[in-house]
């Protein structure tokens, strides 16, 4: 039986026998743990005498040349970091300033828009204090009958106002309380004459009868400050009759003999006539002179062709000059 075995059958038997026999023998001999004394001898590479050429390469960080390079690089890194921080701070500060400017610009634009949409008198610090003038509505001349000329045009020798006399009356300003008895309509001669002193009314009425006036219209009102204003328009047949009544009956051109208004004891010529000028008209202004009673009166006659206008203002204490001048000037313009 042993002779019939082939070489292939013998090989596996020999392999396991050799392998385990060699392994256990080699392992204990090679292990240095069993010989502790030999351990220092087994590491001679650490001594400088045996490896002098390898020492600089083994410890490059110890040499002065190699330590200077990292220090410079570190300084550059620190400078770069500081510079970067400064740039960031500058950019952040710039961004905050830009945001502040944008906010201020938006607020300013909103404020400007609000201010421009307001009236000047509504803006604190910019409101213009009133100079005492009254707020009259926009004025316009009334329409004339077809083919009728204006009073001071060529061909109208009598300087006749062909427009409705009531439409030539100055309207009351804003805030005024209208007088129900003098509301812009026609009034009688007797009512008109009540403006003058009682002792003068009979003579004036006779003078008016001789001059044959055509119409009398009047409007009056009271302002919140207590000023009472009235406007009277007296129309004659022509400019000749109007001037005759003014010069001979009222004597408005004479400072000594002119007829004063009712309740006025002494008066002086007002300089208003030198400031208000309208082509074709004449102005005679008078102011009550001190001492006067509980109120002062100002008045002015406006000669405009066939029409004689009378503007009167009175107020407790003192009749203010500005609204008086304004009222006279506007009424003069309507008649001119």
Structure overview:
- The protein is of the alpha+beta class and 336 residues long.
- It is 38% helix and 17% strand.
- It contains 7 helices and 7 strands; from the N terminus they run αααβααββαββββα.
- A 7-stranded antiparallel beta sheet has the order 1-2-3-7-6-5-4.
- α5 (198-211) packs antiparallel against α6 (239-250).
- The chain starts with 6 loop residues before the first helix and ends with a helix.
- Residues 1-69 have low confidence and may be disordered.
The stretches of 5 or more residues where confidence is low (pLDDT under 50) are 1-69
Order of helices and strands: HHHEHHEEHEEEEH
Strand content: 15-25%
Cα-based radius of gyration, to the nearest Å: 60 Å
Q: How many H/I helical runs?
A: 7
Determine the mean pLDDT.
Answer: 76
Overall geometric form: elongated
Largest sheet: 7 strands, antiparallel
Distance between the amino and carboxyl termini: 166 Å
- Largest sheet, order of strands side by side? 1-2-3-7-6-5-4
Number of strands: 7
Global structural class: alpha+beta
Percentage of residues in helical conformation: 25-40%
How would you briefly describe this protein structure?
The chain has 336 residues and is an alpha+beta fold. It has helices at residues 7-30, 55-58, 64-116, 189-193, 198-211, 239-250, 321-335; strands spanning 177-186, 215-222, 228-235, 267-269, 281-288, 295-304, 307-316. The protein is built from seven helices and seven strands, in the order αααβααββαββββα.
